[in-house]
Amino acid sequence: MAKITPGESPVVPRRSANYQPSLWDHRHLLSIKNKYAKDESVQERDFLKENVRKMLDDEKKTYLDKLELIDDLQKLGVSYHFEREIENILTFFYQKYRIDNHEKDLHATALEFRLFRQHGFNVSEDVFDVFMENCGKFESNNINDLISLYEASYLSTKSDTKLQKFIRTFATQKLRDFVDTHSNEDCGGSCDNDMVEMVVQALDMPYYWRMRRLATRCWWRETGLGNQLHFARDRIVENYFWTIGHIHEPQFGYVRRIMTKVNALITTIDDIYDIYGTLEELQLLTVAVENWDVNRLDELPEYMRLCFLVVYNVVNSIGRDVLKNKNINVIPFLKKSWTDLCKAYLVEAKWYKRGHKPNMEEYMHNAWISVSAPTIFVHFYCLFSDQLSIQVLETLTQHKQNIVRCSAYVVRLANDLATSPDELARGDVQKSIQCYMNETGASEEKARSHVRQMINDLWDEMNYEKMEHSSSLLHHDFMETVINMARMSQCMYQYGDGHGSPEKAKIVDRVMSLLFNPVPLD
């Protein structure tokens, strides 16, 4: 054992995750200009919006034409400009056409079903019975029909019996057969490459699960956390990317800016608990957050003081803004959400230090909190909602909202599928895949399959909660942002750890496409 001379501090062994520096140059980010903010672009946008309104109001357009137009507007990410018109059209169609399926083909029925359910209308899965043969099969081999059927099947709820078990299975297999056939033969120009690509994209990730939209940087630099806490991930652009996945409409720029700060702080705190801090230090930080007392900074290790102070100031700043604009003191609720998060982090740190291997139930009971989604939703609700409710804040901070739990579970499981090998390699608590393997003796492949099925079932439960929103305390728009969190996680972790190693998980391409190379107006 090495001797320590008087006055010399002992060396504390620290882990390292070897996170790479941020890929985004600060000066380059500041130099980016939005060419579409110019007057001529604004005028062109307004002209195009008026043309689309005329198309939506055009009585000569068929029922299917209008459904497809609404679907196109949603996929382009511009439907928020026409929310009133779309709601009126769908309400009219729902009242007039929902019982009459005789004049609609499979594509129209599936598209109608998907749009109605997306917008909260109660439509039975039985609308597909007229097209269904024995054993849940359909006569149609038309690719447009099959894509529409496949996409509609992802609006299933936990009360449905056919959509996931029969309809999705049938459509998925037919689409895979189509891709296999056209990938293994020379089409000679006879097959539609665009159609093949469309099918491949659908099979890769259904539309309903996809992220809706593929000044903060200066704040991050000024905090000094990125420089002083060298072990932590500097992921400010990726954190902003998360917020766009939650809510992309332009009027919510303030919400995105503040939530980017919250996300960045969560990332830093996560790395302190996950990688760098000793168990004794982490217990001190947890107590500091729970007490919320800036006068006790000296009790923390030096590297933790700045981090706690930044969290303290950001949360109190949010609280002041909400009190000023909405006349409700939300600081106790924000503080509790951070306390619960740090306590969940501490549980995992203890598991790792003590070599504890939790079973699946024990792991998930803690992990849906430690993935930080509940903390994010409390902050998001305070910033996003015009009419704040103490009752809603209480149910959110007491973890009583099932749709929040389901979304957080999806985030956790998607994260585990993408990151568990890297995290185990650097020395981390076992994830859901390993917990299931230890508990059941299953192979890793079967454990991953089980986790993917859990995600499917959670989507059914979220869809059910959304359909039954009339009995929920949560506003429909906030429920949609909760679901968007699940969508965003499956975007971020689809090809690997998009938050920790964005260059390896295709996230850089997605960020470039969304933020730096927007779809041109011309």
What key phrases describe this protein's structure?
mainly alpha, Glycosyltransferase, Farnesyl Diphosphate Synthase, 2 domains, 64% helix
Query: What class do helices, strands and sheet pairing give?
Result: mainly alpha
What fold name stands as the CATH topology of the largest domain?
Farnesyl Diphosphate Synthase
Q: What can be said about the biggest beta sheet? A: none
Termini separation comes to 71 Å
- CATH C-level name of the largest domain: Mainly Alpha
Strand content: under 5%
Overall spatial form: globular
Give the uncertain stretches in residue-range form.
Answer: 1-6, 214-220
The assigned CATH architecture of the largest domain is Orthogonal Bundle
Rg, rounded, reads: 25 Å
The fourth-level CATH homologous superfamily of the largest domain is Farnesyl Diphosphate Synthase
Number of domains: 2
N-to-C SSE string, H for helix and E for strand: HHHHHHHHHHHHHHHHHHHHHHH
Average pLDDT metric? 82
Task: Please give the share of residues in helix.
Answer: 55-70%
Number of helices: 23
The count of DSSP E runs of length 2 or more, i.e. the number of strands, is: 0
Domain Terpene synthase N-terminal: 24-203
Domain Terpene synthase metal-binding: 222-460
Keywords: Magnesium, Manganese, Metal-binding
Protein name: Terpenoid cyclases/protein prenyltransferase alpha-alpha toroid
